[in-house]
Design brief:
About 50% of the residues lie in helices and about 10% in strands. It has about 270 residues and is an alpha/beta fold.
């Protein structure tokens, strides 16, 4: 099952470059098989190009994204935190740069925006713990947990290192509540604020609640300021295609989690 999931992530994710070239290869093959399939090949290639054009426009990309993140806002005052004594920041990916045995973890855009939200919350709450959650991904060669890059980002934002707690074991959304729960118990945390990207909350909240945890959401911003000048543009861009790919991946992940029962309460909690 894990191998199949990895294949889908690498090659069958709509919006990805790999999926695009697979679709193009199918269309080209249809053009050259015989005269009967040539028409199908032309139609197929036209649909592929139209599909990717649509995914590359801010209008479509941001609409897909909005459909995932509706209903989740952010905390603007300590009252909304309901006495939370910790802020949990979930990793959203990091890029490992390696050379001659050394490695530096660079935050992805999603992770960087989550770090900025975690730092903002620290400043408006009463000196909370900041728990950064993210382990070593399945990408070959990565040796540094993502939580270290998240910690370094928080330090850059002026957060005291002695208020940052690392959770370096989780590899995916399903792992987070399992690896975070012992830390919450250790530090006697009853209520905590959960920070992730807006499009991620639907799956994250259902996953945490399936294990009897009820975090308070405080969403990171959608995008870095000035990334999209017009939401209604039909002109293609790399940024819009990346947003569409992320949104479609999240929809597929929701379906996968639902099939495995990870979005429902475990039997012993019913």
């Amino acid at each position: 099952m894990n191998d199949m999931v990895q294949i889908i992530k690498e090659f069958l994710l709509p919006g990805s470059l790999q999926f695009f070239w697979i679709c193009v290869a199918i269309g080209v093959a249809l053009l050259y098989i015989n005269k009967r399939t040539r028409r199908w090949g032309t139609t197929w290639l036209t649909l592929v190009l139209l599909f990717y054009w649509m995914l590359s426009t801010p209008l479509i990309a941001l609409s897909l994204e909005d459909s995932l993140g509706r209903g989740y806002g952010w905390i603007t005052s300590p009252v909304q935190a309901e006495g939370a004594s910790a802020v949990v920041v979930l990793g959203g990916g990091s890029i490992a740069q390696r050379a001659r045995g050394d490695e530096i973890g660079v935050l992805s855009k999603s992770s960087a925006l989550r770090v900025l939200e975690g730092a903002r919350l620290y400043r408006i709450l009463d000196d909370p713990w900041i728990i950064v959650s993210g382990g070593i991904s399945d990408r070959p060669g990565q040796i540094t947990p993502e939580s270290q890059a998240l910690r370094d980002g928080l330090i850059q934002c002026g957060i005291p290192i002695d208020r940052i707690i690392l959770e370096p074991q989780s590899k995916n959304t399903h792992d987070h509540p399992l690896t975070i729960a012992p830390i919450l118990d250790k530090y006697d945390v009853d209520r905590f604020v959960l920070v992730t990207s807006p499009w991620h909350y639907l799956r994250v909240m259902a996953t945490f609640r399936s294990y009897g945890m009820d975090p308070i959401p405080s969403s990171a911003v959608w995008h870095s300021e000035g990334m999209f000048e017009s939401r209604n543009s039909l002109l293609p861009s790399d940024q819009a295609l990346s947003v569409s790919k992320t949104s479609l991946r999240e929809y597929m992940a929701l379906g996968y989690y639902w099939l495995l029962g990870w979005l429902s309460p475990p039997a012993d909690q019913n």
